Amino acid sequence: MKPALTGTFLDEITHDIPSQNWRDRDWDNDFATMKEVGIDTVILIRAGYKDQVTFNSQVLQEKIGKLLPVYTDLVQLFLTLAEKYGMTFYFGTYDSGNYWLNGDYQTETEINQAFCEEFIRRYGDYQAFGGWYISHEINTYDEGMMQVYEELSRHLKKLRDVPILISPYIKGIKQFGETAISFNEHITAWDSIFARLKGIVDIVAFQDGNVAYQDLPHYLQANCQLAKKYGLTVWSNVESFDRDVPWKFPPIDYRKLRYKIEQAEAAQVDKLITFEFSHFLSPNSTFPAARQLYQRYWEWITQR
């Protein structure tokens, strides 16, 4: 058996997905399930967002101000569980939800440089730590964000020379409607972006949920070809939540998940990851539909 999905994001600092209110043993149980189903890579979606943070960060207290209390050190928990279950952990950066969105790219960069230094001081000895994830998502060319990626990536490589991952999204019709960009505009923009990121970012994992299903194969193939042209490893972020219903966000229909996996495999991406196993695909999820989705997915991959 070769599982289709071998990586997942871990979403615990969020603004649009409800918390499952898990204790340490609940997370342990879910990591065990991930291991059983073939997941070998876990990616912290972000280590902090606005005034929420996954560990008691002195850097953010000084630079951001008053933060919400941290009752469980999730970074330590996730690193410990990743080591227990033989997984590689990617550390997701801090998203201010403010500076970079308002054009102050330098402040966003400087906060993250200090924040990631703090992470290395506190957690750098964990053997499971094997990658950086820059949590700031873009959908087309943005000169300010190019500077953030360039400056931050170089700093991260000096702190620990491990792969750097980004997971951009497509400015597609599902989210942007009439303001979506065309397929050709997408190609032009990302050719320019990858030319800037060559040798700086190692892995790109496009989110796959913002375009029509009929158009997805073309985007997957084009993204893969473009990224490899500039020497980037290509993963696909197979969204396991559904964007096609009127509320945010339920587990996706099994048929859609299978279709997206099959199309990503046909495009010859290097790895399939998902956003996000614990909420939308786990038998331990608080969503009943996630438990059913897991059963359908498990039956499919074990019969292949």
UniProtKB/TrEMBL annotation:
Provide the organism lineage as a comma list: Bacteria, Bacillati, Cyanobacteriota, Cyanophyceae, Oscillatoriophycideae
Write out the transmembrane intervals.
none
State what protein this is by name. Answer: DUF4434 domain-containing protein
The record's InterPro entries line, in alphabetical order, gives:
DUF4434, GH
Gene3D superfamilies in alphabetical order: Glycosidases (3.20.20.80)
All residue ranges annotated as the DUF4434 domain in the record: 5-285
What domain of life does the native source organism fall in? Answer: Bacteria
